[in-house]
TrEMBL record:
Pfam families: BPD_transp_2
Any GO molecular function: branched-chain amino acid transmembrane transporter activity
The name this protein goes by in its record: Amino acid/amide ABC transporter membrane protein 2 (HAAT family)
Protein localization: Cell membrane
GO cellular component: plasma membrane
Acyltransferase keyword on record: no
Keyword Membrane: yes
Coiled-coil regions, chain positions: none
Recorded topology in the membrane: Multi-pass membrane protein
Organism: Ruegeria conchae
Keywords: Cell membrane, Membrane, Transmembrane, Transmembrane helix
Entry's transmembrane regions: 20-38, 44-63, 70-89, 95-115, 122-143, 174-192, 224-246, 252-285, 297-325
Length: 365
């Protein structure tokens, strides 16, 4: 068992506990960076897809996991980021400028949406954002001169410092681009949680009445949370459009929003690790099911015809299982396992017992 003795405040708020944990993260980053040399193009593409999902999950985690505002409409903001990026590139704007501007525009849209949503809570906020996701489909079709309507848009490779970055022609550079964005977003997220703004997010999530009593501006905090969440989601949408190549109004459907919410719940709400763990499940489960059907057909005979609704049915069963048996998600389960080994034989199940009652202050809402 390792025990870290903290001797000053800066040691308490730094992103990693000690040099050992930092070295583990650096080793993991080195292994992932070298993926193009030990993975073929197919699995490299799947890993790239997982990273894009993780970026989108980090965007939703800011709003839902750390501010406590449920959203079922983040597919709309994925679409805004995707179309903003491709429209800017078609207008002649370099990718290195168009990409962050697409995220910024999506953040502005998110802040605008937050204004009428400030007084909504729980299921009402989820329904409001769900309506946005449904409405985005019609907006894309009606804005055909800009979005291409039902025919959609096509985005090939982009040039960065004179080098072609394309999902199909140059999968390795595209993977490194996505990895770089994921690392930058993750580091920004970590520092956000260490800042007063990030702690305000958590205070609003735990109790709005108590946070307001401590001087937190609830409306301002929620608006900034929406803006930051949508900006990160817009970056993920831009990368998702580049990964897909061709996209239209059906690409960013309500199903994507539901998958995003499922992803962070399965991975673990309120943790950065949970976004990545949930992305692994969402990204690799379809391929796992496909491979499993082929093996089952080879062993037991029969065909490999796709079963309608199988993927979403399994997603639903996994989500229900986590809600019933492990509400803290995959990362929560890992924390329990790690704590068991660290404290054995003094570990007690009550250490992670769920709080079954609301704060009395929250009943005033």
């Amino acid at each position: 068992m390792r025990i870290v003795f903290k001797t000053d405040y800066m040691q308490d708020i730094r992103p990693w506990k000690d040099g050992y944990q930092l070295s583990l993260y650096l080793i993991l980053l080195a292994i992932v960076t070298a993926a193009p040399w030990w993975l073929d193009d197919f699995y490299l593409g799947e890993l790239t897809n997982v990273l894009i999902w993780a970026i989108a999950g980090l965007g939703l985690m800011i709003l839902t996991g750390h501010t406590g505002q449920a959203s079922l409409g983040h597919a709309a903001f994925l679409a805004v980021g995707c179309y903003a990026n491709v429209v800017l590139i078609e207008a002649g704007v370099p990718f290195l400028l168009a990409f962050p501007v697409a995220g910024l525009l999506t953040g502005i849209v998110g802040a605008t949406v937050a204004i009428p949503a400030l007084r909504l809570h729980g299921i009402y906020l989820a329904i409001f954002t769900l309506a946005l996701s449904v409405l985005m489909d019609d907006i894309i079709v009606l804005a055909e001169p800009i979005t291409g309507g039902v025919a959609g848009k096509y985005l090939g490779g982009v040039e960065i410092f004179g080098h072609l970055v394309d999902r199909w022609a140059t999968p390795a550079p595209f993977f490194w681009l996505v990895l770089a964005v994921a690392v930058v977003v993750t580091l920004g997220y970590i520092n956000l949680l260490r800042a007063p703004l990030g702690r305000s997010f958590i205070a609003v999530r735990d109790s709005e009445v108590s946070a307001q009593a401590m001087g937190v501006d609830i409306a301002r905090t929620k608006t900034i949370s929406f803006a930051l969440s949508c900006a990160v989601t817009g970056l993920a949408g831009a990368l998702m459009g580049m990964f897909a190549g061709a996209f239209n109004n059906e690409t960013f459907s309500v199903v994507i929003s539901i998958q995003l919410l499922m992803m962070i719940v399965i991975g673990g709400l309120g943790s950065i690790h949970g976004a990545f763990l949930g992305a692994i499940v969402i990204g690799f489960l379809p391929q796992f099911l496909s491979i499993s059907k082929e093996y089952a057909a080879a062993i037991f005979g029969g065909n490999t015809v796709a079963i309608p609704g199988l993927e979403f049915g399994i997603f639903g069963m996994i989500l229900i299982a986590f809600i019933l048996f492990e509400p803290m998600g995959l990362y929560g389960r890992w924390l329990k396992i790690r704590t068991w080994f660290e404290l054995f034989p003094f570990y007690r199940k009550d250490m992670f017992k769920r709080q079954k009652s609301y704060l009395k202050t929250e009943r005033l809402r």
